[in-house]
Amino acid sequence: MSISLNAGFRMSASGMSAERFRMDVISSNIANANSTRVGGQDPYRRRVVVLESSDDGVQVQQLVQDSSDFRMAHEPGNPNADENGMVYYSNVEPLIEMVDMISAQRAYEANIAAFNSTRAMIRAALTIGKA
Fold first, then answer.
1. Global pTM?
2. 45 near 65, Cβ under 8 Å?
3. Element (H, E) at 57
4. Cβ atoms of 18 and 51 closer than 8 Å
5. What's the pLDDT band for 124 if we cut at 50, 70, 90?
6. Average pLDDT along the chain
7. Rounded CA gap, 121 and 110, in Å?
8. What's the helix, strand, coil split of the chain in %, to 5?
C-alpha cells in the first residue's frame, strides 16, 4: 500500500486534532478535580478519550466516564458532608492528568514534526524539477 504525501498531511492533521481534543478533556478533568457531591448529585466524574485508527489517521471514537470510586474525606464541618461527615470528591487524580497531558502534548508535537517533514519533502521535490 503506498501513501501519498497528501495522505501524510491528513494523518498528521487528524492526529493533531485528536490530541488537541484529548488536551481539552484533560483540562476539564483538572478544572473539576476538587468538585464535591452537592444536593445528592455525584461529583464530576473523570472523562477519558478513546481514539480509533483509520486509513486517514486517527479519530475520536468516544468519550467515556471513568467508573472508579469517588475520593472520600471525613470533613464533618464541610457544608457538602453527608450525615456521617463524609465528603465525596471527584475521582480525578491531578497527577495522572498531568502525565496524560504531557503524553498528549508530546503526541501533538510529533504530529507537527511529521507534518513539517511532509511539507519539506514536497518543497524538495519541487526544487528537483527546477534544476
1. 0.84
2. yes
3. strand 57-65
4. yes
5. confident
6. 90
7. 17
8. 50, 20, 30
Backbone angles phi, psi at 73, to 5 degrees: -140, 140
- H helices within 40-93, ranges in order? none
Q: Which residue has the cell 487528524?
A: 14
Say which residue the cell 453527608 belongs to.
82
Q: For the chain, give every domain's residue range.
A: 5-130
With b for 16 or more beta-carbon neighbours within 10 A and e for fewer, the 73-112 pattern comes to eeeeeeeebeeeeebbbbbbbeeebeebbeebeebbeebe
Extract the C-alpha cell encoding 124: 524538495
What SS3 state is found at 49? strand
Copy the grid coordinates of residue 53: 485508527
